[in-house]
Design a protein that fits this description.
The chain is mainly α. The protein is built from seven helices and no strands.
């Protein structure tokens, strides 16, 4: 009888190992079930951000090209401060206000998406961060003047916080 106590019961050992493996497999499957949707959502958010920024970039590039053409027709240095001044932009004879407005609105659209958690800020920073910051610097006077109006007090304000965070990173 003492020999029986020394011999392992292989059926019980195998059953115990199988139970442990099954429990571990259940835990791994549960963790995967929890984490996989987050990974899928993150990938979808990255793709959605890149696609939207690509579309917005096309629109902005077209608007900038049109403004440059109009600046040239107005005999303005397209890179000079005068072509970015509030007085110049607001003068209806110059025909550039719409181009500037729409450019700022396009940027505000993607900034709103960042602030709402729809778009990824790091992707925006990599693709358009410099252009966004530069645009806000170039048109700072126009933006400030627009915000002085009762109808414009919140004009393009979504980008302020995004630009501040991008510039701090």
């Amino acid at each position: 009888m003492t020999d029986d106590l020394k011999k392992p019961n292989w059926a019980e050992v195998i059953t115990a190992i199988a139970t442990g493996v099954a429990a571990l497999s259940t835990i791994v499957a549960a963790v995967a079930a929890i984490l996989i949707p987050f990974a899928i959502e993150d990938a979808a958010k990255t793709t959605r951000t890149a696609q939207t920024v690509n579309e917005v970039t096309r629109v902005i590039d077209d608007l900038v090209d049109k403004k440059i053409q109009q600046d040239r027709l107005n005999n303005k240095d397209t890179q000079g401060k005068e072509a970015k001044s509030s007085d110049y932009i607001n003068d209806p004879t110059n025909k550039v206000r719409g181009f500037v407005f729409r450019t700022l609105i396009e940027y505000d659209y993607i900034c709103s998406g960042v602030n709402l958690g729809i778009f990824r800020e790091d992707v925006i920073k990599k693709i358009r961060g410099d252009a966004l910051s530069n645009t806000w610097q170039e048109y700072a006077e126009f933006i400030a003047d627009r915000r002085k109006l009762p109808s414009g007090k919140n004009a393009w304000n979504e980008c302020d916080s995004v630009i501040n965070r991008i510039n701090k990173q």
